[in-house]
C-alpha cells in the first residue's frame, strides 16, 4: 500500500520515553519530512535505576530528553498521561478501564480529541509489563464500533523493538514494511543519542548497531535498503 504522509495525522503511543524512537524513529523522520503531523502520547515516566550507562536517571532528566527529541523530530505536540514513580514500571497495577479511557478520551492527545488518521502502538508481546498493558489498553480503545459515534483511525499499527525479539511467543514477521532512506536511519540514531540516559554500546538492544541491523534486515525483506516493520491491527483502504 502507498501512504501519502503529507496528508496524515499520526499518533504514536510510547509506554516510556524512547520507545517511540526505537520503534518508529525512521517513520517519524520520513513522515515529518513529507509534512505529516506527528503527536506522541507517552504513558508514564519516573526515576529509573537500571543498567543504563549512568545507572540512574531522574524523571527531570527524562523530561529534558523528551523536549530535545520533540524539537529534533518536529512533533506537533506530546504529553505524559501518568507521570511519576507511582506509575512508572507499575502500569500493570492500574485498572485497564482507567488506562483505556485516558487513551480513548481523557487526555489532551486522546484518540477522540485528536482524531488521528494513523495510530501506532507497542506490540503486546513485549517482555515489559508496561508495554503489555499499554498495548492491551490501546486495543480496547480502538475497538470496532459505529464510526458515526466514535473516531476510527484509518490505519492502526503496532511497532517492534529489538528487545522483544527473543521471546518464545514473539510476534510473527511484520506485515507492513515502511521503506526508509539513509537520512531516516541517521535521524533515528541521532534521536536515540538525545536520549542519553537510554542509549547503549553494542551489543545491546538500544545500540546504534542493533538499530541499523534491524532496519537493514527489514529492508532486505522488502527488497529495499532500509525499512521498519509494523503489524497491522486495522487498515481501511
Automatic annotation (TrEMBL):
Using the record, list the residue span of the signal peptide; answer none if the entry has no such feature.
none
Q: Which InterPro entries match?
A: GlcNAc_PI_deacetylase-related (IPR003737), LmbE-like_dom_sf (IPR024078)
Domain of life where this protein originates: Bacteria
One of the Pfam families matching this protein, by short name: PIG-L
Q: Does the keyword Zinc apply?
A: yes
Which keywords, in A-to-Z order, does the entry hold? Zinc
Q: Tell me which PANTHER family the record gives.
A: N-ACETYLGLUCOSAMINYL-PHOSPHATIDYLINOSITOL DE-N-ACETYLASE, N-ACETYLGLUCOSAMINYL-PHOSPHATIDYLINOSITOL DE-N-ACETYLASE-RELATED
Protein's name in the database? PIG-L family deacetylase
